[in-house]
Amino acid sequence: MLRIQTRLPDSYSGAPIDELHDRIAVAKATLGDSLFILGHHYQRDEVMRWADARGDSFKLSQLAGARPQARYVVFCGVHFMAESADILTGEDQIVILPDLNAGCSMADMAELAEVEDCWDALSEVVDISRVVPITYMNSSAGVKAFVGRNGGAVCTSSNARAIISWALERGDKIVFLPDEHLGRNTAFQLGYGVGDMKVWNPRMDLGGLQERDCKEATFLLWKGFCSIHQRFTTDHVAKFRREHPEGAVVVHPECTLEVVQAADSVGSTEHIISFVEQADPGAVIGVGTEIHLVNRLNEETPDKTVLTLDPLVCPCSTMFRIDAAHLAWILEGLLKGNVRNQITVDATTAAEARLALDKMLQIA
Ligand code: 13P
């Protein structure tokens, strides 16, 4: 989805980084408790150093509602996280995304109209009352609302297993949106096999499936993916193991099943961090996730060597858009009473999406 971020004035885009940090420090101190800055683990260091709390997307969704006294919640993350924060914060709180172009291409792969078409088409061939929709946090508020009004739940990479187990107690079939890999990896962890899953391609009639597939599959996995995580291959894992026979491999569950199976451990960004922290001094760890987190882990744990599995990995161009200049622009705006880049979800969508988010918070 195109969200146009206005160009910053030269006094921000042209300012030296040290000056920007000085200005952010002054603005943050002046705003005091009225300001709460959240930072997702994929953010740049120049932004993370200002975060009052860091986390994976689950932890951040819990934290969003944890400071009701903060009038401004500045979310250094991406659009879908800021939308969820707006849903989970109080009515008088204002959620801000410092760069409106900070998004997630995977979230954009499931548009509400396509999800509704999928549901209508499925209703023709299966008992839809036995189908439970589950959406990954990386989805729009509209898709979360769809899931909420149809009795499903949101999940993140740190609780997908618990949420899917819950869904399978209340239905026979799951439509998993929008990341086919997280859906497949979690179903495998729960003991399901390839034959239990079919991929739903929203660009094809009946998702490109036969009626029989829809009836028989336990999991209909939306054909969506993260272009960064999908780049990691088993060759990368094999190369790392050749070069570091004593090393360990940890990857994010947005990677393919083959990569996850070749790794020693799989989990959310928070899990990856604790995996590194708990490794013995001197350990060499190959990581399959976004490069800013990998580099930061390497710097913050000098007694270990933390390497990306793919040396050519390109950073996610939307996840790490926010920089010190945008943060300074937002905070100095607030000092003057100008709220920029507020993220709001309309009341009806928010109420339905909240059902799906609360379900996750309750189960997880
Ligand atoms: P985490 O919940 O693991 O932080 O993942 C968020 C994300 O968007 C991964 O690409």
At a glance:
The chain is 43% helix and 15% strand. It is of the alpha/beta class. The protein folds into 3 domains: 10-103 and 318-345, NadA-like (Rossmann fold), CATH 3.40.50.10800; 107-227, NadA-like (Rossmann fold), CATH 3.40.50; 229-308, Rossmann fold, CATH 3.40.50.10800.
Summary keywords:
364 residues; Rossmann fold; 3 domains; five-stranded parallel sheet; 13 strands; globular
Number of strands: 13
- As a percent range, the share of helical residues equals 40-55%
Query: How confident overall, as mean pLDDT?
Result: 96
CATH fold-level assignment of the largest domain: Rossmann fold
Small molecules (ligands, ions, cofactors) in the structure? 1,3-dihydroxyacetonephosphate
Low-confidence stretches: none
What is the end-to-end distance? Answer: 30 Å
Strand residue content: 5-15%
CA-based gyration radius: 21 Å
Q: How many structural domains can be distinguished in the coordinates?
A: 3
The CATH superfamily of the largest domain appears as NadA-like
Helix-strand string: HHEHEHEHEHEHEHEHEHEHEHEHEHEHH
Major sheet: 5 strands, parallel
Please provide a written account of the structure.
- By secondary structure, the chain is α/β, with parallel strands linked by helices.
- It folds into 3 domains: 10-103 and 318-345, 3-Layer(aba) Sandwich (Rossmann fold); 107-227, Rossmann fold, CATH 3.40.50.10800; 229-308, 3-Layer(aba) Sandwich (Rossmann fold).
- It has 16 helices and 13 strands.
- It has helices at 10-13, 17-31, 45-48, 57-64, 79-88, 112-125, 141-149, 160-170, 180-189, 211-216, 234-243, 257-262, 269-278, 291-300, 324-335, 347-363; strands at residues 35-40, 53-55, 72-76, 94-96, 131-136, 153-155, 173-177, 197-200, 219-222, 248-251, 265-266, 284-288, 305-308.
- It has a 5-stranded parallel beta sheet with strand order 6-5-7-9-8, with helices on both faces. Strands 2-1-3-4 form a 4-stranded parallel beta sheet, covered by helices on one side.
- Helix 2 runs parallel beside helix 15 (324-335).
- The longest helix is centred in the last third of the chain and has 17 residues, at 347-363.
- It is globular.
- It starts with 9 loop residues before the first helix and ends with a helix.
- The structure holds 1,3-dihydroxyacetonephosphate.
- The site of 1,3-dihydroxyacetonephosphate has 11 residues, from helix 4.
- The site of 1,3-dihydroxyacetonephosphate (13P) has 11 residues, from helix 4.
